[in-house]
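$ run holo --ligand "manganese (II) ion" --emit tokens
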Amino acid sequence: MPFELPPLTYAFNALEPHIDATTMEIHHDRHHKAYVDNANAALAGTDWENSSVEDVLTSLDQIPEGIRMAVRNNAGGHYNHSLFWEIMGPDGGGAPTGALGDAINATFGSFDDLKAQVNDAGVKRFGSGWTWLVVSGGALEVMSTPNQDTPLTDGKAPILGIDVWEHAYYLEYQNKRPVYLEAWWNVVNWDAVAARYDAAT
Ligand code: MN
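-- output --
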């Protein structure tokens, strides 16, 4: 079955004032939809047209060379954005608790230290990309990727990712990516991040 654009489970304005409704609507309905449509167009008629997005992204070296870059960019965009909508929500923010909170404190020192590392990786990502908290070999790690590359392709399990493409923040924050990153933590859905952490460990 071709990939499908997952519906947002909250309203476009649910993340205001941190992420504005117009940005959310354009980002979900146009940008994410374009990744879905372009990935489906690239994979149509190949052995991969019924594969899961995870299978495709962990097997990029087996994708026919003529469509490999289109698949990397667009299936990657589909996967990354599906995760992004899931790990945000209204009534978000605060600090992580439970096993995830303990692992963050043990790995980074504190939640504030984790936040500083994720934001720093996002600020330093030149051009477009993502900053991530991933599980790699059972341990938490901060990393960033360019474009729509995903940690999944490197065998890492992303549990939190922040889109630092300008389309994610430019209407409200213009060139101020650090201000957007700081504000983003007010919309993180820790229950969803913790569920991904539990599944990855
Ligand atoms: Mn985006």
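-- notes --
Residues 27, 31, 81, 163, 165, 167-168 surround manganese (II) ion (CB under 6 Å).
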